[in-house]
């Protein structure tokens, strides 16, 4: 049941027939893991907390740096040098006291991730490095968890959604090479609204999916050119030889 206060707080999304009371109760029962609390994780965590996603796991091993403030809208100038996950939990609880926030301040590894994924309904990858992306992808495939992945560098943004049984493949099909790209936000720069736009769209898909709606993006890769304001849409294709999902899909087909 929703309380009077919840009916009031969420009234604008309760009005949506695709969400309604049932969708709101689903959001309340949901647990989402947000990997990375930077430029993407800021809007993702703010929108999920505001929408009433009942339980958030906030993973970030970094402390706040002055260079983050240009785009990481979760944080204040006075917070520099403090752990981002702790700062985020405080900010999000202030925004919506009824949600619960768990924090993970150690870097996610293949060994640490499975314990974090207990009870998780959906994973939102907002991290800034290839190694973590591959670890998160492999864990989502092996545990059949939906994954919403975003990234942005320069004026280029990228967004995709993977859902079980991963018929269109996984992150490792798209990027089999695990080497870090030389072009990243540190070397090439990025505008705040670029990560804001991609992060907001990750949040949109997360709220829809947790409320019980399908994602129109499932199995697709969307590329955003922020200079031209142009979107390109590509269909993801599973690599039958993919070391992460290739075997898994073959098993399903048998
Ligand atoms: Zn794959």
List keywords for this structure.
single chain; 254 residues; alpha/beta; 11 helices; 8 strands; disordered C terminus; binds zinc ion; Ubiquitin-activating_enz; ThiF_NAD_FAD-bd; Molybdopterin biosynthesis protein MoeB; nucleotidyltransferase activity
What features would you describe in this structure?
This protein is an alpha/beta fold. The protein contains eleven helices and eight strands. It has helices at 4-9, 11-14, 20-29, 41-51, 84-95, 113-116, 130-143, 171-174, 185-188, 192-210, 246-253; strands spanning 31-35, 55-59, 100-104, 122-125, 147-153, 156-162, 220-225, 230-235. It has an eight-stranded mixed beta sheet, with helices on both faces. Strand 1 (31-35), helix 4 and strand 2 form a beta-alpha-beta unit. Residues 169-170, 172-173, 239, 242, 244-245 line the site of zinc ion. Zinc ion binds at residues 169-170, 172-173, 239, 242, 244-245. This is Molybdopterin biosynthesis protein MoeB. GO terms for molecular function: nucleotidyltransferase activity; sulfotransferase activity; thiosulfate-cyanide sulfurtransferase activity; ubiquitin-like modifier activating enzyme activity.
Write the layout of secondary structure elements.
Elements (H helix, E strand, L loop, with lengths): L3 H6 L1 H4 L5 H10 L1 E5 L5 H11 L3 E5 L24 H12 L4 E5 L8 H4 L5 E4 L4 H14 L3 E7 L2 E7 L8 H4 L10 H4 L3 H19 L9 E6 L4 E6 L10 H8 L1
Parallel strand pairs: 1-2, 1-4, 2-3, 4-5
Antiparallel strand pairs: 5-6, 6-7, 7-8
Helix pairs in contact: 4-5, 4-10
The structure holds zinc ion.
InterPro entries: ThiF/MoeB/HesA, ThiF_NAD_FAD-bd, Ubiquitin-activating_enz
Organism: Leminorella grimontii
GO molecular function, one term: ubiquitin-like modifier activating enzyme activity
